[in-house]
């Protein structure tokens, strides 16, 4: 049986509350689970101790039995010191999306078009100023 340590959603609409559970990977997200290991309340501030409550001994026991944590639960276990921190690489994290890049290109074209006539007029004005000075 493939075991997972994952989040099971509870709470009402737009007010999520998660249980950290050990469940068979074939069961639905909010369906049957073997054991409840803790709770996660994402609406609390990140520095709050009440945000994540986890039974560390039971989580270690499930990991020793071969349960695989999901990415979000693995981050919680890393913060608790149960798992080693994994090196993550997301090189595209800071780059804007396709639509934002298109908007930026269009904005740059408009600015270039607006600056081009102004640059052409400036030398003509300087030439007129030089002629009148002589």
TrEMBL record:
Query: Which keywords does this chain's UniProt record carry?
Result: Ribonucleoprotein, Ribosomal protein
Compositional bias, Acidic residues, is annotated for 118-134
Ranges of Basic and acidic residues compositional bias?
Answer: 100-112
Q: Which Pfam families match?
A: Ribosomal_S16 (PF00886)
Question: What InterPro entries does this protein's entry cite?
Answer: Ribosomal_bS16, Ribosomal_bS16_dom_sf
- Specify where the region named Disordered lies, as residue ranges: 81-134
NCBIfam families in the cross-refs: S16 (TIGR00002)
- Entry similarity comment: Belongs to the bacterial ribosomal protein bS16 family.
- What name does this protein carry? Small ribosomal subunit protein bS16
- Species whose genome carries this gene: Sinisalibacter lacisalsi
């Amino acid at each position: 049986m493939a075991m997972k340590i994952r989040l099971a959603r509870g709470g009402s609409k737009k007010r999520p509350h998660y249980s950290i559970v050990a469940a068979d990977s074939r069961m639905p997200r909010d369906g049957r689970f073997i054991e409840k290991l803790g709770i996660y309340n994402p609406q609390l501030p990140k520095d709050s101790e009440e945000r994540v409550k986890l039974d560390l001994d039971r989580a270690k026991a499930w990991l020793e039995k071969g349960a695989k944590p999901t990415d979000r639960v693995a981050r919680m276990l890393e913060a608790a010191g149960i798992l080693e921190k994994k090196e993550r690489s997301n090189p595209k994290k800071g780059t804007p999306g396709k639509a934002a890049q298109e908007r930026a290109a269009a904005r740059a074209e408009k600015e270039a078009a607006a600056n081009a006539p102004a640059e052409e007029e400036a030398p003509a004005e300087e030439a007129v100023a030089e002629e009148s000075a002589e």
